[in-house]
Amino acid sequence: MVSVEELIGELLLRHNCVIIPSFGGFVAKQTGASIDYNNGVMLPPKKSLLFNRQLINNDGLLIAELAVSNAIDYNESTKVVRDLIDSWNLQLRRGERITIDKVGFLFFDQEKNICFEQDRFFNLLLDSYGLGKVHFLSENDVQLAQKTSIESAINNVDNNESQSAIVFNTESITVNHEVKEPVIIQHPALQPKTKVWKYIAAACLLPIAFYSFWLPVQTDVLESGMISVKDFNPFYHGENGKYIQQDLKSSVKKIADKTLDQSISDLPEDVAVFSYKYNDDMYMSIRIPRNDLNKSIEQENPVENNSSSGKFEFIVGCFESIENANNLVSLLKEKGFNAYITDVTNGLSRISAGKTSSEQDIQSIILEAKKQGFDGWVLKK
After folding, report:
1. Does one domain contain both 28 and 56?
2. Nearest partner of 347 among 300, 283, 282, 277, judged by Cα
3. Order of strands, edge to edge, in the sheet holding 348-356?
4. Fewest Cβ atoms closer than 10 Å to its Cβ: which of 48, 241, 352, 381?
5. pTM of model > 0.70
6. Do 295 and 350 have their domain in common?
7. Does residue 377 sit in helix, strand or coil?
8. Residues 336 and 223 in one domain
9. Percent of residues in the chain assigned helix, strand, coil, to nearest 5
10. Which element (helix H / strand E) includes 85?
């Protein structure tokens, strides 16, 4: 059975907050890599943990994970966590330490405040998996190495001076030995920096200084507020713009709208159907019948003369078939409209739902027609 202590450490590897209901919560925060120059150690990034006694509300994460890991129901998992919390509280009151695997230790201080100490040997940050401490020569190690080399060189000089006098029975011969000064090899970590960075800085600053003078003086950046790639080329010379005034009024021709008869007369003889622009928002598909058939339709079905006078008509249909036109007129009359065929143009019969000389009356006819499901347009004579 997986214990709660093991689950807390596993959950902190994947989450930044794990709450133990009615006890407290662990909050993780990622910290970057650090360098200890005195001890010569480089530490990888890690998760720093804090224990917050105020996080006691159950978020369901720990209990649900315990239930899934041990194949038990949620209520039983809740009871296991509650029993563990009672046991922890008892251990803390006795002055004992609570050990949580991969996380750290919990204990009471002298004022009975709960304290937390994180485990320093386990890194909870998954991104740092496999990274350990990196050791390097510290400043203390370099100074110690320099001191040791100097002392060894001085000892060698003292030994050479003590053996410089050789005494014989008859005479004393003094042998002079050249004393070499000790050579101190400077540690690579303390070598002075090369002058390469000076040249790099000069190579970066010279173009910046040049263009900071060139762009405002030799280009129109300050006037136009725009900068181009060509402005960075000192050898580019732009040509002055030449503007030629043109009379646009002479080149604009007004195109007058054509009537239906003019549009039909301009079409080729083999065209049977074309789209006629009635207005800016409406196009009508017009079929062009033969002249003899058009005349026969007009003779057989003369236009009905309406006795009422007016200059506004509400057109609700346009049919080539006279039978369809008569059917629509009958339907409109049944709905209470004074409908009739107003005219026949090029074999097309236009049906009016009403005729009036008042704009207010024509609006009433339009509203009533739309209520009955008829839509159309107003013909002004």
Report:
1. yes
2. 300
3. 340-345, 348-356, 312-319, 377-380
4. 241
5. no
6. yes
7. strand
8. no
9. 40, 25, 40
10. helix 74-93
Assess whether 345 and 269 both reside in one domain.
Answer: yes
Return the biggest CA–CA distance within the chain: 171
Among 379, 263, 361, CA closest to 318: 379
Q: Which residue has the tokens 């110690």?
A: 144
Both tokens assigned to 320:
């080539």
Host domain of residue 143: 137-167
Quick count: other Cβ atoms within 10 Å of Cβ 106?
20
Extended strands (E) in 266-370: 273-279, 282-287, 312-319, 340-345, 348-356
250-294, pLDDT tens digit by residue?
Answer: 444 444 556 666 677 776 666 666 666 666 666 666 666 645 444
Residue 57 gets which letter from DSSP? S
The three-point CA angle 125-130-136 to 5° equals 105
Same domain, 204 and 326: no
* Residues recorded for the chain: 381
Number of C-beta neighbours around residue 381 at 10 A: 9
How far is the C-alpha of 286 from the C-alpha of 166, rounded, in Å?
138
Rounded to an integer, what distance in angstroms lies between the CA atom of residue 24 and that of residue 117?
15
- For tokens 């074309």, the residue is 274
- At 74, list the tokens: 């949620």
Nearest-angstrom CA–CA distance, 153 and 160: 11
Question: Mean pLDDT of all residues in the chain?
Answer: 75
- 68 three-state secondary structure: helix
- 346's CB contacts (< 8 A; 6+ apart) are 260, 261, 264, 286, 288, 289, 294
The mean-pLDDT minimum among 127-131, 188-192, 205-209 falls in 188-192
Alpha-carbon span 14 to 124, nearest angstrom: 9
31 and 122, same domain (yes or no): yes
Note the pLDDT tens digit of each residue in 97-151: 899 988 898 999 888 888 998 888 888 887 777 777 787 776 777 777 777 877 7
Model confidence at 9, in pLDDT bands (50, 70, 90)? confident
Phi, psi of 115, deg, nearest 5 = -120, 155
